Each structure stands twice: as structure tokens, then as C-alpha cells.
Amino acid sequence: MLRLDKYISNATDLSRVEAKRYVKYGEVTIDGEKATNAAQKITGDETICIDGSAISLAKNRYFMLNKPAGVVSATKDQNNSTAVDLIFEHRSDELQIAGRLDIETTGLVLVTDDGQWNHRLTSPRNDFQKIYEVTLGVAITAADREKLANGVWLEDEKHPSLPATLDVLDERRVLLSIADGKYQQIKRMFAELGNHVESLHRTQVGDIVLDEDLEPGDYRALTETEVASVMAPKS
Fold this sequence. Notes:
This protein is 21% helix and 26% strand. It is of the alpha+beta class. The chain folds into three domains: 2-55, Roll (Structural Genomics Hypothetical 15.5 Kd Protein In mrcA-pckA Intergenic Region, Chain A), CATH 3.10.290.10; 58-127 and 210-235, 2-Layer Sandwich (Alpha-Beta Plaits), CATH 3.30.70; 129-205, Alpha-Beta Plaits.
């Protein structure tokens, strides 16, 4: 349950002070009756109107963004544009990044205001595969593929990376699928193999695939199926 002024503030762009003012001047109704107390408790089942227009709390929001290079996966940054800066939605300050990419990596970033969904997606124990298109400095070798499949020891890590799967697209481009997500992991993995990542583009997280119609910097809401895929029980 919420106080009436808090409910109004959460459902609109009004501050709680402004919400109290609307109540004071008789412009708020609850189930057709004029509200008189801004501290009144609201269950959420009532019909709340301001000046005759019904308001309601927004449902959780879920977006996919095609992140361009030069944008940081953060809500705020003093020096760079952020992924959230590209999401032009009501109460965008409540949005959070669900799985970060470094500043030069492009592709699929998921953004939500649902903390439980975010945690489910990003917790290592849930084993959501992430797929990247990787452009390398030199061609991949059979020995490299075997090392990736067995897990690569990274400097300053206590355990090797989880096994990765790799599909060769051409001589220097591969699709790499990993479940873990250590700091700059893919660049570090290939560095350990004596190679160099020239570009990195994420195309998929779990069952959510980057929409090919999204230009860099564009975003769209996730479908109900995409949202539900994160919370579905693991087989």
C-alpha cells in the first residue's frame, strides 16, 4: 500500500508536494469521491483521477538497445554519453543496465527498471549464454578453439573461464558464446591466446536476440515472450 501523494508522484511527473496541492484543492478523486487526505493509503485497486483523468502506476519496463561505440553502459557518467541517455522514456532515471558492455563494444544492451529481472539475468549461477561477433587481429587456429572449449586461465583470476563455443564466420571473424562475464573477458581470453580483438559486437543474451532493424543508438521495448524468457525455469 502507498500513501496517496506517493502514488500520484509515482504515476505522474508530479512531485509529492505538488500531489498534496492537487489533493488540497479538491482535484483528486478516489473511486469517484473527492480525496481529502494526501496521506490516505492506496491499495492500487482504486480508480484515481486528477482533474477527471485516470492515472495508474506504470508496469515494469524492458528495452533492448543497439549500443554504439563510445557510449558507456551506465546510468550516469560525467565524461561520456550513457546507454540510459539514449532511452527517451518517462522516469528514465529509474532505469538500470542489465549486463554491461565496455565503451567500445557495440550491440545488445538490455535496460529495465525491474531489479529482480535484472538480477536473474546477470547472476552467474543462471548461466545465460551471451553471443558476440568478434573480429580478430589474426586467424583463429584449431588449437585456439580447443583452449577456448576447455576454459582459458586469465591473469589474476582464481579459476579458468567457463568453456566457450566458437563458430568461424571467416578467417578473422568468429561468433563466440560464453556464460560468464568477467571484466573485459573476451579481449583477455584472446590476448592469452596471442591474438587481438579488433572489434566486438554482442548479438544475443539468453534467448533475446538483437533486433536487426535497430540502428546503432536505437531501442525498442521487449516483447512479452522476450521478457518471460529470462524468468522461465532452467531445464
